[in-house]
Amino acid sequence: MDAGRSYVKSVPVGEPYHLNEERLEGADAEGGVCHVYPGILVEPNRWIVMACEEARASLGSGGGPFGAVLLQVDDGTGEVIRFWRDHNHVVERSDPTAHAEISVIRSSCQELGVIDLGAIRRDVSRLPQEGETSHCEIYSSCEPCPMCYSAIAWARIPVLVFSASCKDASGKGVGFLDEELKEDVCRGYGDRKVKVFQAVCPGTMDVFEMWKGGGYERY
């Protein structure tokens, strides 16, 4: 599936930024003003618009207002080989981990047969690609929560673009835990919302000793 090129175009520092229909390529630009982080603002493109469309579709199916799109991009040409799009399935699947980002990562890894989405080799991938290597980029309708950000990092995805912020997701009348969780994971264990304990037992370190020099694949 040839879906065009993927690129991230920065907005010059200090330039006033106003959402409008032309910049969003026909997408609905009405609504509240989102929180913007200094220094990382980029121009919207079709992929972030698609992620926001997935968020709306999620609402239509009774899910949370979150969507994501994951692109597979040829390293040599920058061409998008294929993409996956999905949204939040937490309520539908009775699964608190079924966030939009997790959903597209799971789908792409299963179809490609890889766990490293940052360096996909042609001789390893289950799906065809012309170039020797490719990588994935992810677009999310909202700033990923700590769980989803960790999944993106574990999958070695090198590019993340999000639209709304965790402050917007946690704002008045919306009320998701995103901002609270982001702050909580930065605290020491004794200061977190969840009561955390450590219990060291015989055999705690055995698996790591077995791992050392065992020829296991590190991921």
Describe this structure in words.
With 219 residues, this protein is an alpha+beta fold. Helix content is 26%, strand content 16%. It contains 7 helices and 5 strands, in the order H-E-E-H-H-E-E-H-E-H-H-H. Strands 1, 2, 3, 4 and 5 form a 5-stranded mixed beta sheet that branches. Strand 4 (133-142), helix 4 (146-154) and strand 5 form a beta-alpha-beta unit. The longest helix is centred in the N-terminal third of the chain and has 15 residues, at 46-60. The radius of gyration is 19 Å and the shape is globular. Residues 13-30 have low confidence and may be disordered.
Tally of DSSP β-strands: 5
Strand and helix order: HEEHHEEHEHHH
Beta content comes to: 15-25%
Helix fraction by DSSP (H/I, runs of at least 4):
25-40%
For the termini, the CA-CA separation is: 28 Å
Annotation field: number of helices: 7
